[in-house]
Amino acid sequence: MPTTDLKAQIAGLVKLQGLDSEIYTLGNEKNTKPQEIKEIEAAFELKKQGLVELEKKSLDLQKQRKEKELELATNAEGIKKLSGQLFSLKTNKEFQAMQQQIADAKADGSVIEEKILISFEESDKIKAQIEAENLKLKNDEKEFLQQKKTVELRVKEIEDRLNQLQAQRKQIIPEIDPKMLAAYEKILHSRGGLAIVTVKDNSCGGCHMLVPPQVINLIQMYERIVTCEVCNRILYIQE
Ligand SMILES: [Zn+2]
Fold this sequence. Notes:
The protein is mostly helical and 239 residues long.
Protein backbone atom coordinates (compact mmCIF):
# COMPACT_ATOMS: atom_id res chain seq x y z
CA MET A 1 0.00 0.00 0.00
CA PRO A 2 1.36 3.46 -0.87
CA THR A 3 1.81 5.58 2.20
CA THR A 4 0.37 9.10 2.10
CA ASP A 5 2.91 10.52 4.50
CA LEU A 6 4.88 12.95 2.28
CA LYS A 7 8.10 12.50 4.24
CA ALA A 8 7.96 8.75 3.68
CA GLN A 9 7.04 9.28 0.04
CA ILE A 10 10.06 11.51 -0.50
CA ALA A 11 12.28 8.98 1.24
CA GLY A 12 10.96 6.40 -1.24
CA LEU A 13 11.71 8.68 -4.19
CA VAL A 14 15.23 9.27 -2.88
CA LYS A 15 15.78 5.51 -2.73
CA LEU A 16 14.39 5.21 -6.24
CA GLN A 17 16.66 8.01 -7.44
CA GLY A 18 19.66 6.12 -6.09
CA LEU A 19 18.75 3.20 -8.34
CA ASP A 20 17.75 5.36 -11.30
CA SER A 21 21.00 7.34 -11.22
CA GLU A 22 22.94 4.12 -11.58
CA ILE A 23 20.50 2.87 -14.24
CA TYR A 24 21.05 6.06 -16.25
CA THR A 25 24.82 5.99 -15.92
CA LEU A 26 25.02 2.34 -16.92
CA GLY A 27 22.51 2.83 -19.74
CA ASN A 28 24.60 5.65 -21.16
CA GLU A 29 27.76 3.56 -20.91
CA LYS A 30 26.04 0.64 -22.63
CA ASN A 31 24.91 2.89 -25.48
CA THR A 32 28.51 3.80 -26.30
CA LYS A 33 29.56 0.15 -26.67
CA PRO A 34 28.35 -0.67 -30.22
CA GLN A 35 30.30 2.33 -31.52
CA GLU A 36 33.33 1.26 -29.49
CA ILE A 37 33.20 -2.20 -31.08
CA LYS A 38 32.84 -0.65 -34.53
CA GLU A 39 35.96 1.43 -33.93
CA ILE A 40 37.95 -1.58 -32.75
CA GLU A 41 36.88 -3.51 -35.87
CA ALA A 42 37.72 -0.60 -38.17
CA ALA A 43 41.20 -0.29 -36.65
CA PHE A 44 41.84 -3.98 -37.28
CA GLU A 45 40.54 -3.76 -40.86
CA LEU A 46 42.97 -0.91 -41.43
CA LYS A 47 45.83 -3.07 -40.21
CA LYS A 48 44.91 -5.70 -42.84
CA GLN A 49 45.40 -3.13 -45.63
CA GLY A 50 49.19 -3.47 -45.58
CA LEU A 51 48.92 -7.16 -46.41
CA VAL A 52 46.35 -6.56 -49.15
CA GLU A 53 48.72 -4.09 -50.80
CA LEU A 54 51.69 -6.44 -50.57
CA GLU A 55 49.67 -9.27 -52.12
CA LYS A 56 48.60 -7.02 -54.97
CA LYS A 57 52.24 -6.01 -55.54
CA SER A 58 53.25 -9.67 -55.62
CA LEU A 59 50.58 -10.50 -58.22
CA ASP A 60 51.57 -7.51 -60.36
CA LEU A 61 55.19 -8.67 -60.32
CA GLN A 62 54.18 -12.17 -61.39
CA LYS A 63 52.13 -10.74 -64.25
CA GLN A 64 54.96 -8.50 -65.41
CA ARG A 65 57.37 -11.43 -65.24
CA LYS A 66 55.10 -13.61 -67.41
CA GLU A 67 55.14 -10.85 -70.03
CA LYS A 68 58.94 -10.67 -69.90
CA GLU A 69 59.19 -14.45 -70.24
CA LEU A 70 56.99 -14.35 -73.33
CA GLU A 71 59.15 -11.56 -74.71
CA LEU A 72 62.26 -13.65 -74.07
CA ALA A 73 60.73 -16.65 -75.86
CA THR A 74 59.90 -14.48 -78.87
CA ASN A 75 63.44 -13.11 -78.82
CA ALA A 76 64.93 -16.64 -78.73
CA GLU A 77 62.63 -17.66 -81.58
CA GLY A 78 63.89 -14.69 -83.59
CA ILE A 79 67.55 -15.57 -82.98
CA LYS A 80 66.91 -19.13 -84.04
CA LYS A 81 65.26 -17.99 -87.23
CA LEU A 82 68.07 -15.57 -88.06
CA SER A 83 70.74 -18.18 -87.34
CA GLY A 84 68.97 -20.60 -89.71
CA GLN A 85 69.10 -18.03 -92.48
CA LEU A 86 72.74 -17.17 -91.86
CA PHE A 87 74.28 -19.80 -94.17
CA SER A 88 71.91 -19.21 -97.06
CA LEU A 89 73.30 -15.71 -97.53
CA LYS A 90 75.31 -15.04 -100.65
CA THR A 91 77.68 -12.17 -99.85
CA ASN A 92 80.07 -11.58 -97.03
CA LYS A 93 78.46 -8.20 -96.42
CA GLU A 94 75.03 -9.77 -96.00
CA PHE A 95 76.55 -12.38 -93.70
CA GLN A 96 78.14 -9.74 -91.48
CA ALA A 97 74.95 -7.67 -91.35
CA MET A 98 72.98 -10.73 -90.28
CA GLN A 99 75.59 -11.62 -87.67
CA GLN A 100 75.29 -8.13 -86.27
CA GLN A 101 71.50 -8.50 -86.17
CA ILE A 102 71.86 -11.78 -84.24
CA ALA A 103 74.32 -10.20 -81.80
CA ASP A 104 71.88 -7.30 -81.20
CA ALA A 105 68.99 -9.71 -80.59
CA LYS A 106 71.14 -11.69 -78.14
CA ALA A 107 72.01 -8.47 -76.29
CA ASP A 108 68.29 -7.63 -76.09
CA GLY A 109 67.67 -11.14 -74.74
CA SER A 110 70.30 -10.62 -72.03
CA VAL A 111 68.62 -7.40 -70.95
CA ILE A 112 65.25 -9.21 -70.70
CA GLU A 113 66.85 -12.08 -68.74
CA GLU A 114 68.39 -9.60 -66.34
CA LYS A 115 64.98 -7.99 -65.79
CA ILE A 116 63.39 -11.38 -65.10
CA LEU A 117 66.12 -12.16 -62.56
CA ILE A 118 65.54 -8.84 -60.78
CA SER A 119 61.81 -9.53 -60.78
CA PHE A 120 62.41 -12.90 -59.06
CA GLU A 121 64.54 -11.20 -56.41
CA GLU A 122 61.82 -8.60 -55.80
CA SER A 123 59.21 -11.34 -55.54
CA ASP A 124 61.29 -13.12 -52.90
CA LYS A 125 61.58 -9.90 -50.91
CA ILE A 126 57.82 -9.32 -51.07
CA LYS A 127 57.13 -12.93 -50.11
CA ALA A 128 59.25 -12.44 -46.98
CA GLN A 129 57.37 -9.21 -46.24
CA ILE A 130 54.05 -11.00 -46.65
CA GLU A 131 55.14 -13.70 -44.24
CA ALA A 132 56.24 -11.12 -41.66
CA GLU A 133 52.99 -9.20 -42.15
CA ASN A 134 50.94 -12.37 -41.69
CA LEU A 135 52.71 -13.09 -38.43
CA LYS A 136 52.13 -9.53 -37.22
CA LEU A 137 48.48 -9.72 -38.23
CA LYS A 138 47.98 -12.88 -36.21
CA ASN A 139 49.10 -10.98 -33.12
CA ASP A 140 46.97 -7.99 -34.09
CA GLU A 141 43.99 -10.29 -34.46
CA LYS A 142 44.56 -11.80 -31.03
CA GLU A 143 44.72 -8.31 -29.57
CA PHE A 144 41.62 -7.25 -31.52
CA LEU A 145 39.59 -10.25 -30.33
CA GLN A 146 40.72 -9.62 -26.76
CA GLN A 147 39.67 -5.97 -26.93
CA LYS A 148 36.32 -6.92 -28.41
CA LYS A 149 35.78 -9.56 -25.74
CA THR A 150 36.56 -7.05 -22.98
CA VAL A 151 33.88 -4.71 -24.33
CA GLU A 152 31.38 -7.55 -24.71
CA LEU A 153 32.05 -8.72 -21.16
CA ARG A 154 31.49 -5.19 -19.89
CA VAL A 155 28.15 -5.06 -21.75
CA LYS A 156 27.15 -8.35 -20.12
CA GLU A 157 28.21 -7.00 -16.71
CA ILE A 158 26.13 -3.85 -17.28
CA GLU A 159 23.12 -5.90 -18.35
CA ASP A 160 23.34 -8.09 -15.25
CA ARG A 161 23.59 -5.05 -13.00
CA LEU A 162 20.69 -3.36 -14.81
CA ASN A 163 18.54 -6.44 -14.21
CA GLN A 164 19.41 -6.32 -10.50
CA LEU A 165 18.57 -2.62 -10.34
CA GLN A 166 15.26 -3.11 -12.15
CA ALA A 167 14.34 -5.86 -9.68
CA GLN A 168 15.14 -3.55 -6.75
CA ARG A 169 13.13 -0.81 -8.43
CA LYS A 170 10.11 -3.08 -8.63
CA GLN A 171 10.31 -3.64 -4.88
CA ILE A 172 10.30 0.08 -4.07
CA ILE A 173 7.65 1.21 -6.54
CA PRO A 174 4.58 -0.19 -4.68
CA GLU A 175 5.49 2.01 -1.70
CA ILE A 176 5.15 5.17 -3.76
CA ASP A 177 1.93 6.99 -4.59
CA PRO A 178 1.28 6.46 -8.35
CA LYS A 179 0.69 10.17 -9.03
CA MET A 180 3.93 11.08 -7.32
CA LEU A 181 5.75 8.33 -9.17
CA ALA A 182 4.38 9.60 -12.49
CA ALA A 183 5.56 13.14 -11.69
CA TYR A 184 8.97 11.85 -10.61
CA GLU A 185 9.39 9.78 -13.79
CA LYS A 186 8.38 12.65 -16.04
CA ILE A 187 11.09 14.83 -14.48
CA LEU A 188 13.54 11.91 -14.55
CA HIS A 189 13.21 11.50 -18.30
CA SER A 190 13.27 15.19 -19.14
CA ARG A 191 16.17 16.01 -16.77
CA GLY A 192 18.79 13.46 -17.74
CA GLY A 193 18.03 10.87 -15.08
CA LEU A 194 18.02 13.21 -12.10
CA ALA A 195 14.57 14.02 -10.67
CA ILE A 196 14.97 14.57 -6.94
CA VAL A 197 17.83 16.54 -5.40
CA THR A 198 18.87 17.88 -2.03
CA VAL A 199 19.07 21.53 -1.13
CA LYS A 200 22.56 22.18 0.14
CA ASP A 201 23.99 25.56 1.18
CA ASN A 202 20.73 27.13 -0.01
CA SER A 203 21.20 25.92 -3.55
CA CYS A 204 19.57 23.28 -5.73
CA GLY A 205 21.57 20.07 -5.99
CA GLY A 206 20.51 19.75 -9.65
CA CYS A 207 21.14 23.16 -11.22
CA HIS A 208 22.98 24.86 -8.31
CA MET A 209 20.74 27.90 -8.42
CA LEU A 210 19.81 29.65 -5.19
CA VAL A 211 16.73 28.32 -3.36
CA PRO A 212 14.94 31.18 -1.58
CA PRO A 213 14.35 30.82 2.22
CA GLN A 214 10.57 30.72 1.80
CA VAL A 215 10.93 27.74 -0.53
CA ILE A 216 13.17 25.99 2.02
CA ASN A 217 10.45 26.61 4.62
CA LEU A 218 7.89 25.07 2.28
CA ILE A 219 10.03 21.96 1.86
CA GLN A 220 10.38 21.57 5.62
CA MET A 221 6.63 21.77 6.11
CA TYR A 222 6.08 18.57 4.12
CA GLU A 223 2.66 19.72 2.96
CA ARG A 224 3.25 19.33 -0.72
CA ILE A 225 5.96 18.46 -3.23
CA VAL A 226 8.25 21.44 -3.83
CA THR A 227 10.21 21.75 -7.06
CA CYS A 228 13.14 23.95 -8.10
CA GLU A 229 11.92 27.07 -9.88
CA VAL A 230 14.78 26.85 -12.35
CA CYS A 231 15.27 23.16 -13.24
CA ASN A 232 11.92 21.85 -12.04
CA ARG A 233 13.45 18.97 -10.05
CA ILE A 234 11.87 17.85 -6.78
CA LEU A 235 13.69 19.35 -3.79
CA TYR A 236 14.24 17.80 -0.40
CA ILE A 237 16.39 18.47 2.61
CA GLN A 238 18.59 15.80 4.04
CA GLU A 239 18.04 15.43 7.78
ZN1 LIG B 1 17.34 23.32 -9.82
